[in-house]
Input
Amino acid sequence: MAVRGGAYSGAGLGGCDDGLVIDLSAMHGVRVDPTMRTARVEGGCTWGDVDHASHAFGLATVSGIISTTGVGGLTTGGGHGHLTRQCGLNIDNLLEADLVLADGRFVTVSDPQYPDLFWAIRGGGGNFGVATSFLFQLHPVRLVNAGPTLWELEHSAAVLRWYRDFLTAAPESLNGFFASLSVPPGSPFPEHLHNRMMCGVVWCHNGPEQEARELLAAVHDAAETLPEASGSARTIRDGGLKGVNFRRYLQKGPVDDLPVTGTTGRVSSVQRRTQGTRRTNANHAAWSRMPEK
Ligand SMILES: Cc1cc2nc3c(=O)[nH]c(=O)nc-3n(C[C@H](O)[C@H](O)[C@H](O)COP(=O)(O)OP(=O)(O)OC[C@H]3O[C@@H](n4cnc5c(N)ncnc54)[C@H](O)[C@@H]3O)c2cc1C
Output
């Protein structure tokens, strides 16, 4: 038997051969409580469903990078996204979940209720029950400044070194993940870059406009001055978390662990093997401060 949320598991965990699939995709309701700043999210929602509902209230939670990813698998797998530097992992923002257990019981798990089970579903994978709904903490998020800066793939090592140092010193309102990717053939990417293999950082800033301007200006400066990368950088400005979620995101082919240290040998191995999109985060910030539960 397999449980399916958004069906985005690369390993195919949302399906099985000769078995039963419990497909939750018809359960995609979201109820936002703007007073408590929470969202009750049904087990088959995608992150696009959640962003769509919470954005109307100027709120958001830590979701995945891509709007079509399922809430169920991402949450039970841990989960990180554009707001992770500021607001922690996705599971740091999970307040409770409704579960149907293997013996048919229905339970609500949270810190005070079934704490072991609550601990297990926050990163332990999808084998602890079927989550019919999740309750998430929301945060004030109105418009974000966001978009990718791209470089030629052979500059990965230099870009990674700069990225590691720059982001560590930057305020937590700025998130960025490094990616090596085949540039999707569509907006917001300029046409002459479509389908080219490149590396880059996808930024998302949630904070004062002036701070965003200063930070993105620093990104532009670095993009111009990075010796091996000059001239190849592009920064695209966008608004709202929904604008950040590239629907044409691709991922395929195996890859070794992606380094944050940017050592040349490992980076070139990534370059050789990258066919889709690979990413890494050097941006623990709020995430690393969250109390261990
Ligand atoms: C293009 C792409 C982008 C991604 N981006 C991110 C990202 O930004 N951040 C990140 O952290 N991860 C990301 N991931 C990884 C993603 O979180 C996992 O693939 C996750 O399993 C997808 O969840 P799903 O519900 O869509 O998967 P499914 O294939 O539906 O399910 C995967 C697993 O989750 C379990 N599951 C799903 N829903 C429930 C439920 N309601 N109750 C109990 N178990 C459930 C299933 O049993 C199964 O074991 C990405 C993956 C892809 C393919």
Observations:
- Confidence is low (pLDDT under 50) at residues 229-277.
